[in-house]
Structure to design on (459 residues):
């Protein structure tokens, strides 16, 4: 960094890969603006991160990691969504964060926290001069949908929803909890809680970029000072590498880096379908078998990241059967895979990070949404941004192998009208993404403004 730090910030993420990644990238951006950052993880994930960070050469990371006691042992499942877990988590993390801030002198200028932990605002308010910045890991469109829902403008399970600044939405385009909230009530309530105190927060930060959601952003900005700071991906995947920045690849999983890159190197340009459903999605057994058959039937090469806990669902002898045409790994270095010239498209569950990463690198998409905000992201991928297709599922949510073959055919064919349009749009959005984060771009300006404000903050 060289120069004296102008502000000191604590950044807190819930222990989920899809939240840690963007918050870590944001931390690096803050550091590049001369801010000292301490990255707070829960004690149950802290050791995991540090172990892999060290193994991955990230010892030189220009920020420190401090564990907050969440009351759980290392290895506690990160997908625990019981009310008891959330209550204990809130109580312990609040206490532990308060103790940390009390012990700091001078106090931090701000706490940047995951929007899923809105109660951190109450901790900040105990310390005059500590600003509260809520960081939303989903897009503004999804945020706006929840806000309309919480205002009673439409009901759970409603089909055909008309909302300002959006195309007409079917029930199946809404975040899953609003259409099928029997799935997990505590998670639904947690998701809604992100918006309970948005009138009181000091900063409303969103991992998105302005050109992506122009109308919705306008609608949001009429009510809150929403600032896009994304896309939060390491600078080397955009045009300008930040001095000293690296993709530290900090992960809760072991990425099979060389295996993926060597295999991709052996394939022709644009010939590979990369398949991944993120860090949490769980496919039903029969869906996994059908997907495996569908991928095989596409005739294309494919690289499929199947988390260790999901591998038992693969058909017997599948790896032998697909031979050189397919590579199955438990965890990929996703950004490097997306940026590889052999990758022709990305079949994704449409998690917001995966979506944004593909958009920023200019990769066309096949959306197969599973949970949470993913159906809405898939709707926008197909009908608004027009950067891919969304698989059509039957009424029980099942996607056939024929449908997988159809979607792969549409997106992988670079010569068809659809294939050409999809690629053109993907490259156009990639340019916007790069501009947003380049020096003087919209997101960069928002980060600079955030830093300037917290440096002289006193509410
Ligand atoms: C979740 C939600 O799905 C998402 O919609 C929400 O907004 C954030 O949290 P997750 O389901 O894990 O996250 O998906 P995603 O948002 O796509 O995040 C996964 C991250 O893991 C991405 O940054 C991706 O690059 C990384 N990843 C995934 C790998 O590095 N390797 C893999 O093999 C798979």
């Amino acid at each position: 960094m060289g120069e004296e730090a102008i502000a000191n910030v604590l950044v807190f993420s819930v222990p989920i890969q899809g939240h840690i990644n963007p918050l870590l990238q944001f931390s690096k951006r803050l550091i590049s603006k001369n801010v000292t950052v301490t990255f707070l993880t829960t004690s149950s994930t802290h050791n995991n991160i540090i172990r892999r960070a060290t193994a991955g050469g990230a010892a030189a990371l220009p920020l420190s990691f401090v564990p907050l006691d969440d009351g759980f042992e290392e290895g506690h499942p990160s997908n625990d969504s019981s009310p008891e877990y959330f209550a204990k988590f809130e109580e312990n993390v609040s206490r532990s964060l308060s103790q940390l801030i009390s012990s700091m002198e001078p106090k931090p200028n701000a706490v940047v926290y995951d929007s899923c932990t809105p109660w951190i605002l109450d901790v900040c308010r105990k310390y005059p001069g500590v600003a509260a910045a809520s960081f939303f890991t989903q897009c503004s469109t999804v945020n706006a949908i929840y806000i309309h829902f919480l205002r009673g403008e439409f009901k759970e399970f409603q089909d055909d929803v008309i909302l300002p600044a959006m195309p007409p939405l079917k029930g199946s385009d809404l975040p899953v909890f609003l259409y099928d909230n029997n799935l997990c009530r505590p998670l639904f309530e947690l998701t809604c809680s992100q918006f309970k105190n948005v009138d009181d927060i000091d900063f409303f930060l969103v991992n998105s970029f302005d050109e992506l959601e122009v109308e919705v952003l306008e609608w949001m900005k009429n009510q809150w000072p929403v600032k896009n700071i994304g896309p939060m991906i390491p600078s080397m995947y955009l045009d300008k590498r930040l001095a000293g920045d690296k993709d530290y690849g900090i992960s809760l999983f072991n990425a099979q880096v060389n295996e993926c890159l060597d295999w991709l190197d052996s394939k022709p340009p644009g010939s590979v379908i990369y398949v991944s459903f993120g860090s949490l999605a769980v496919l039903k057994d029969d869906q996994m078998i059908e997907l495996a058959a569908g991928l095989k039937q596409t005739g294309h090469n494919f690289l499929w990241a199947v988390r260790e806990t999901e591998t038992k669902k693969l058909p017997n002898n599948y790896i032998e059967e697909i031979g050189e045409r397919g590579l199955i790994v438990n965890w990929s270095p996703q950004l490097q895979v997306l940026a590889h010239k052999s990758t022709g498209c990305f079949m994704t569950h449409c998690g917001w990070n995966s979506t944004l990463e593909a958009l920023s690198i200019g990769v066309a998409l096949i959306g197969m949404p599973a949970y949470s905000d993913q159906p809405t992201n898939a709707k926008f991928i197909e009908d608004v941004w027009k950067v891919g297709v969304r698989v059509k599922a039957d009424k029980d949510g099942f996607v056939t192998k024929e449908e997988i073959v159809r979607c792969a055919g549409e997106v992988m064919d670079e010569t068809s009208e659809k294939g050409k349009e999809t690629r053109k749009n993907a490259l156009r959005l990639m340019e916007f993404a790069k501009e947003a984060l380049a020096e003087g771009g919209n997101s960069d300006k928002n980060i600079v403004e955030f830093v300037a404000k917290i440096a002289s903050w006193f509410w």
Observations:
- The first helix runs from residue 17 to 32.
- The chain has 17 helices and 13 strands.
- Residues 16-19, 21, 137-138, 276, 278-281, 305, 331-332, 334-335, 351-354, 357, 372-374 surround uridine-5'-diphosphate-xylopyranose (CB under 6 Å).
